[in-house]
Amino acid sequence: MSIFEAVFLGIVQGLTEFLPVSSTGHLILARALFGVAEENALAFDAILHLATATAVIVYFHKDIWLLLNTLFRWLGRLPVNKRDMTLLSAICMATIPAVLLGLSLESLMGTLFRSPLLVALVLVLGSMLFMYAEWEYSKRPPTNVMTIKKGLLIGLFQSLALVPGMSRSGSSIAGGMLLGLSREESARFAFLIAIPIIFGAGSKKLLELITSDQTVVWTPVIFGSSTAFILALLAIHIMLSFVRKHSLWPFIWYRIFLAVFVVFVVTFG
Questions:
Q1: Per residue, what are the HEC states of 194-210?
Q2: 3-class SS of residue 184
Q3: What's this model's pTM, rounded to 2 decimal places?
Q4: Where in the chain are the domains?
């Protein structure tokens, strides 16, 4: 893989990871449409995800420090803020489904799940989920009350993103909206619960690359991941600002048009 290709994929990953359009789906489509080599694709994609997870940590460092402080106080049997403890517990519960399902489906993620036509289908199915979330959201105002049970349920929604084309942030935001959270609070929670999953998967793949016998050219990896990190910071800020005032409908239409385009290219290209 050349530096240009790595930077190109880093741009795709950084801009799409935290928008409800599926970064993994876009990486698969970018490779298929522009002829980027698939060698070590899953590992490289995971490292790009590691870079974007680092961006979340940087962006939400104050929130993360507060949660860590809550954890340390709880372990030390000191008084803790009940709301912060609930949020921390909800994040932990949301992580469990994605970890279990991710380990179970890892082999499929590298083969069957990397089909452009499957991505197109899931883009449409994800759009239908977002439509339903917006419809339910319009019928009742959000309460913004987080519970441990809601955390687990949103984690199940997040697990849908194991299939490329769904979108980790999109499915989590839709789940949060269906469970009574505002779009903004759903987005913040979606970004926070993405950290352990994305960071864990990326670290695992990075370790596999380091310890493998194959020769790895690290310069493209560094350039690609650096690009993804910078643009991910921008994408997080844009998404949080957007959902304060707007619905998910622009992303719904984008996903549908992209799916139609992919089917057209695969069929007639």
A1: HHHHHHHHHHHHHHHHH
A2: helix
A3: 0.86
A4: 3-268
Q: Using alpha carbons, select from 29, 35, 43 the residue that is nearest to residue 225.
A: 43
Residue type, 112: L
Are 48 and 224 in contact by the 8 Å Cβ rule? The answer is yes
C-alpha span between 40 and 76 (Å, rounded) = 44
Token pair belonging to 102: 């991710």
In 3-state terms the chain splits into helix, strand, coil percentages (rounded to 5) of: 80, 0, 20
Q: Where are the alpha helices (DSSP H) in 38-182?
A: 41-59, 61-75, 82-104, 106-109, 116-139, 148-159, 168-178
Tell me which residue has tokens 């990953």: 13
DSSP state for residue 38 in the 8-state scheme: -
Output the CA–CA distances (angstroms, integers) from residue 155 to 171, 177, 191, 197, in the order listed.
9, 13, 12, 10
Tokens coding 151: 């955390």
Residues of the chain with pLDDT under 70: 34, 36-43, 103, 105-114, 212-216, 269
| CA neighbours closer than 13 Å in the CB half-sphere of residue 1 | 30
- Show the tokens assigned to 104: 């179970």
Cβ atoms < 10 Å from Cβ of 41: 17
d(CA 92, CA 87): 9
Residue 186's CB: how many other CB atoms inside 10 A? Answer: 27
- What confidence tens digit (pLDDT) does each residue in 11-56 have? 988 888 889 988 777 877 877 776 766 566 666 777 887 888 899 9
* Contact criterion met (CB below 8 Å) for 20 and 13: no
CB 217 within 8 A of CB 69: no
